[in-house]
Design a protein that fits this description.
- The protein has 131 residues and is an alpha/beta fold.
- Helices cover 28% and strands 26% of the residues.
- It has a domain of 80 residues: Macrophage Migration Inhibitory Factor.
- The longest helix has 18 residues.
- The radius of gyration is 16 Å and the shape is elongated.
């Protein structure tokens, strides 16, 4: 873990550069390998095609980011790291948001250690990190 899921209104598909946002978020997670092991990073997105936003104006858009992490990271580390993640998202959409209404939300959930199971062979296949 972490898993970072970006849901966005499909009307942002053409101008939102969501793939670039995913790369930015993944790069942010890689800046903290002692907190978030690189082999566990999963960042993904999908457009939501059926939605109603605010007054129903079809130009309005939304972006909802949910990051799920394993339990145990100190609150001050979570707060600083994910505040920076929120800034990445709002910065990514700043120009587009200045032209049309876009609601952006960013949530962090911690997985219950007694209610989650996982296995991961990816770390064995990662390229060595050179410092």
């Amino acid at each position: 873990m972490p898993h970072c899921i970006v849901e966005y209104s499909a009307n942002l598909e053409a101008e939102g550069a969501v793939g670039a946002l995913l790369e930015k978020l993944a790069a942010h997670f890689r800046t903290a390998p002692d907190v978030f092991p690189p082999g566990g990073i999963r960042v993904r997105a999908w457009p939501v095609t059926q939605y109603v936003i605010a007054d129903g104006n079809p130009e309005h858009g939304f972006v909802n980011v949910t990051c799920r992490i394993g339990a145990g990271r100190p609150a001050e580390i979570r707060k600083a790291f994910f505040a920076a993640g929120f800034e990445i998202v709002t910065g990514h959409f700043a120009e587009l948001s200045a032209r049309r209404g876009i609601g952006i939300t960013f949530y962090v959930d911690q997985a219950d250690p007694e209610g989650s199971w996982k296995t991961n062979s990816i770390p064995a296949f990662l390229a060595p990190v050179r410092g």
